[in-house]
Design brief:
- The protein is mainly beta and 169 residues long.
- It has a single domain (5-31, 54-167), classed as Hcp1-like (Pnp Oxidase, Chain A, Roll), CATH 2.30.110.20.
- It has helices at residues 67-72, 161-167, and strands at residues 5-14, 17-18, 23-27, 33-38, 47-53, 57-63, 81-91, 97-112, 123-137, 140-146, 151-154, 157-158.
- Strands 1, 2, 3, 6, 7, 8, 9, 10, 11 and 12 form a 10-stranded antiparallel sheet that branches.
- A hairpin with a 2-residue loop joins strand 9 (123-137) and strand 10.
- The termini are far apart.
Length: 169
């Protein structure tokens, strides 16, 4: 019988600079296929047709003032900022620790400095548009998505290799 591994600690790195003690919450990018409904003649009902991937975003909530997000805000390229999430997940039954690492390249699209009130806790939030996504667990690559290069690797299987090759020079 297995037990769940629960997040015990984490950190967020922006262009290699860690924000331990400052980062409060990170929402990792949602993985979603872009699907379109199709029902052709002779079909009993509609099917969902794969149209690629939906946009991906990372969200971060930090306490106090953080210069890192603002310093990077407005960068002109799709993949101008590197953000890395590192999480330590510990299995409740046996105590084994697993490392979840998510690397993304992209840029900040929104920075919300929030409500400011003397004596209250302050939080700042940022939304990051993802152009490149890589998910590794215990050093093993589980998923790599590169929108600009049309790469979609799942446990080493390139789901878009034939499509990419069909339209490449």
């Amino acid at each position: 019988m297995g037990f769940p591994a629960k997040l015990k600690n984490m950190n967020l790195y922006l262009d290699g600079i860690g924000h331990s003690g400052i980062v409060q919450e990170v929402t990792l990018p949602k993985l979603a296929l872009k699907m379109a409904e199709w029902r052709g003649g002779g079909m009993l009902g509609p099917l969902q047709v794969d149209q690629g991937l939906e946009k991906m975003e990372l969200e971060a909530t930090v306490g106090g003032l953080i210069a890192g997000m603002l310093r990077q805000f407005g960068i002109g390229s799709f993949d101008g900022v590197h953000a890395r999430f590192a999480g330590a997940f510990q299995e409740e039954g046996g105590g084994a620790v697993r490392v979840l690492e998510v690397n993304v390249l992209g840029r900040w699209t929104t920075i919300d400095l929030g409500q400011q009130k003397v004596g209250d806790d302050t939080q700042h939030k940022g939304t990051f548009a993802v152009a490149y996504y890589e998910l590794n667990v215990d050093g093993e690559n589980w998923l790599t998505i590169d929108f600009l290069s049309m790469v979609f690797l799942v446990f080493g299987v390139d789901r878009y290799e034939e499509i990419r090759n069909a339209v490449s020079d």
